[in-house]
Each structure stands twice: as structure tokens, then as C-alpha cells.
Amino acid sequence: MRGRSLFLLMGFTLVVLGLFARPAHAADIRTGERVVIAADEVIDDDLIVSAQFVEVNGTVTGDVVATGTVVVINGAVEGSVLAAAQSVEVRGPVGGTIYAMGYSLQLGGEADIQRNVLFLGFSAATQPGSAVGRDFFMAGYQMRHDGAIGGDLNVSAGALQLNGTVGGDVTGEVSTAGRAAPPHVALPNMPADVAMLPSGLVVAPSAQISGQMLAREIAPAAPPTHGAFGLPLWLADRLGTVIGLLLVAAFIVALWPRFLPALSGALQRRPLPSLGWGLLIYILLFPAGIIAGVILVVGLTLLFAMVTFGQLTAAMLGLLVGLFLFALFGFLFFTYVVAWLVVGDLLGRLLGNWANRPGSRVAQFLYVLIGVLLLQALRLVPVLGFIVALFVGTLALGAVLVYFVDRGRALKPPPPAATTIATEEVA
Questions:
Q1: In sequence order, what DSSP letters do the residues of 329-396 get, joined into one string?
Q2: 169 shares its domain with 317
Q3: How far apart are CA 57 and CA 333, in angstroms?
Q4: Is 283 found in the same domain as 189?
Q5: Which of 176, 266, 346, 404 is least surrounded, with the fewest CB atoms within 10 Å of its CB?
Q6: 3-state secondary structure string, 221-279?
Q7: Residue in 158, 161, 151 with CA at minimum distance from that of residue 173
Q8: Mean pLDDT across 33-56
Q9: pTM to 2 decimals?
Q10: Full DSSP string of 107-154
Q11: Sign of the CA dihedral running 126, 128, 132, 137
Q12: β-pairing verdict for 148-149 and 64-73
């Protein structure tokens, strides 16, 4: 299931890049809190719209690119539809292909999709009367099919219920019945008819499959009990973690010997501000950064689609996505790797001076070694381990901010000394 999901994601990405890589031309662009295309309105061009609520009731002769919270297409779209939203509902005819990403995708009874449907999200549903001319690709948790698919149905999901017709083959992987479903999250503007399906593959007597039934249930593999060298899994996992952390520590100490002492020193001087700033980063700044990064990438993507960059559009979009992923990877690498070295260095220094030369690289590595071993030992305690992991990342993130704030204050020039000017009274 993972391999097929990855394949579908890669294909989805390539298709999207291909859409935006075309030479750009004029398009009807609309933004706002709520954008509604009236039933008697005809847009003789592509429609690019971004709003919290998008509803297309009229006719669009080109493609539709829509982002928002809720996207509803009741009218006719002669081209393709590219939608990224929490909820995507298509109730009218579409001459091309639907590329959708979000929580749910629903094809209403009047939906007539001439080509394909590609959906990446949580829940997909096709109502009775809906029709897909060619193939349907879906990767997510669940799909309920009550309509008609002319070609193949390719699914990678936890739950699949087939009640309608499929003109080709049904392929994919589905979780076994009885597996626990993910928690249902009630989001604002959530469609009321999105119901959780039990895991597993269900083929109703009303289902008509003209091709072969190749979809299969994937039984979960038994978890291993032993790791490398026949060691118990928990011991092998901790040992591998310690070795990995020490290798990173050796690299940092060799190239940047002042890095870890600087951050651990800031943490030692100001532990409470470090904790407070770390919590602020975790709770507010990190989620806000993720949202801002996604909005920035989507916004610039729409901008590139409006401006003529030719074949450079895909390269520029790839650069933006690469920079965003690099920043996200850097944050996660610091939180889950470097943070343990910072806190470990502080613990090692607090436990005692283990070398005659405290500033030497060997002494720094010993400090980190002692601290990492102690922290990993604490992680073996069931409840305490989670608390330790949470505090390590929080304290280290806050220490970074405290260090740069203190450094900025130290480099700030002092205010000029006050001078007095003597004045003489003139008789």
C-alpha cells in the first residue's frame, strides 16, 4: 500500500507540474472570502480562484484551478479541474480530468467526468448516477463507490466499499478488516455526509466489475522482537540511536567546536526563558510556519501560472518546494537530533569536568557522550521517556533563540555618554 501511495503521489505531482509548465496565458482570476460563479455566467477562459468558499454554478470553457476550504462545482467545466481544499464536491459535467487533494472528494449524482479522476486525501465517494469515463486513482483511508467507472479503479486505502460498476479492473491494496480506523476529525465546514467506513474490502452483490478483481487485503506484518545481532528490539533501537547521535556529535565537534557549548551555555544561563520560547515555537510558530510555507508555495504557483515563464515554470516551482522541504527538514533534524546533543552537552558539564582541558574537542565529546547515555536511559521509562523527549526538543529550540538574543544584545553598541554644556549668564 505504501509503494502504490508513493507512486500515486509522484504521479499526481508530475501531473500538476505539467499543468503549470505550459506556456501561460490570460486567465480569469478571482479571490476573496467567498467566490460564487452564477449559473448564467460563462467564463470563456481558464478560471483560477482562491477563496474560503468556492462555488462554480456557471460554465467554464477552460480549466478550473481552485484552492480554499470548500470547493463546489455544480456547473459545466469543459477542461480539467485542479482543486486543493478541505472538501471538494463535483456535481456537474467535466470534460477533462479531476486532480483533487484534500480531506474529502465527492462526485454527485449529476457528475459526468469524461476522462480520469486522481484523488489524494482521506475520503472519496461516488454517488449513484455519477460517471467517470476512464480511470479512477485514489490514495487515502476510505472510498465508497456507488457510481460508474468506465475504466480501471486503482485504490490504496484502508477501507473500500464497492456498490457500483467498474468497466475495467479493480487493483490496489486495502487494509484487513477489523483494523482500527484513524480518529475522525470534525473540521469546520465539514460535509455532513462523510461517514467513517470500517476497514477492509467489501464487494456488495450490486457491484458489477467487468474486468478482474485484483485488489487484495494486506495483513499487517508481525512486529519484530529482535534487532541487530539478535539483541532485543528495544535495546537495539536505543543502541542504534546512541550510535547515530554520537556520529553526528563527532562531526559537529570536529568542525564547529563552539556550537554545542554556545547553545548549552545559553540553556544553562536562562533555562526558564528557553523553555518558554521553545513552547512558543512548538505551539505557535512551527504550525504558523507550515501554513505560511504552504500558502506561499501555492500563491507563487498561481503567480507563475499567470506570468509567462515558459518551460522555467516547473523549475521555479520545484525550487520553491525544495526550499520549503529543506527548511522543514532542517527544523526536524535539529529537533530530533541536534537537540539531544545540546541538552546532553549541558548534562555532561553539570555532572563534572571529565578532562583537564575543558575546551578540548575530546572533553566536549565526552560531555555529549555522558549526557546522551543518560537521556537515552531515561527514555526507557514508559511515561518519563515521552516527557524527556518533549522537553529536550523544547529546551533546545528555546536555547537557540535565547543565544541569538543575548548575542545581539552583546554586540549592540553602548549608548553615548551624556555630556553637559556649561552656559554663562550674561549680565
A1: HHHHHIIIIIHHHHHHHHHHHHH---SS-TTSHHHHHHHHHHHHHHHHHHHTSHHHHHHHHHHHHHHH
A2: no
A3: 47
A4: no
A5: 404
A6: CCCCCECHHHCEHHHHHHHHHHHHHHHHHHHHHHHCCCHHHHHHHHHHHCHHHHHHHHH
A7: 158
A8: 91
A9: 0.53
A10: E-TT-EESS-EEEEEEEEEE-TT-EESS-EEEESSEEEE-SEESS-EE
A11: positive
A12: unpaired
Q: How many CB atoms lie within 10 A of CB 92?
A: 19
What is the Cα–Cα distance from 310 to 312, expressed in whole angstroms?
5
With H, G, I as helix, E, B as strand and everything else as coil, classify residue 401.
helix
Domain for residue 333, yes or no? yes
Contact in structure between 340 and 372 (CB atoms under 8 Å): yes
Question: How many folded domains does the chain comprise?
Answer: 2
Give the number of other Cβ atoms within 10 Å of residue 191's Cβ.
Answer: 18
CA distances to 61, 69, 311 from 189, in Å: 29, 8, 38
pLDDT of residue 392: 82
**CA distances for 385 relative to 123, 238, 254, 382, angstroms:** 35, 12, 30, 6
Q: How far apart are the first and last CA of the chain?
A: 99
Give the structural domain span for 348.
228-411
> CB–CB of 93/73 below 8 Å?
no
Instruction: Please report which confidence band the pLDDT of residue 260 belongs to, taking 50, 70 and 90 as the band edges.
Output: confident
Grid cell of 89 as nine digits: 464536491
Contact assessment for residue 35 and residue 55, using Cβ atoms and an 8 Å cutoff: yes
* pLDDT of 190 higher than 60: no
The pLDDT, as a whole number, for residue 324 is 74
- The x, y and z cell numbers of residue 72, run together, are 463546489
The mean pLDDT value of the chain amounts to: 77
CA distance 160 to 139: 11
Whether 404 and 325 share a structural domain = yes
Backbone angles phi, psi at 398, to 5 degrees: -65, -35
Bridging pattern class, strands 170-175 and 76-77: unpaired
Does the residue 422 lie in any domain? no
